[in-house]
Amino acid sequence: MELMIVGIILAVVAGLAVPGYISAVEKSRKQEALETLGALRNSEIRFFAGNATYTPTFTQLDFDPTKATGTPYFTYTAAGGATFTGTATRNATKFSALSGCTAGYTLTITDQGVITQGC
Questions:
Q1: How far apart, in whole angstroms, are the C-alpha atoms of residue 58 and residue 65?
Q2: Which domains does the chain have, with CATH numbers?
């Protein structure tokens, strides 16, 4: 009987703790993506200084976001030309719905440093 009560208490505590843990992990992954996008923007600005254009090709930069992180929670893309937009798309296979989106979300940064998030 006592073991049943202990089991129920542990289940309730775990039920309260797990969503908070998942939310904290998702926030840290989002922060990692924002830092990677910031580094991508800085690399694009350096490229622009020497070429008067932004590039969508990571191989032309001194920073490759696809190799920057050890875990592929986001897919990174860039759109170059007269302006720059870098995008980090949350991979759906490793996605937590606690972010408020029904599928993977995106984070974008522009050459002006404007950051937006979308579902």
A1: 8
A2: 2-118 (3.30.700)
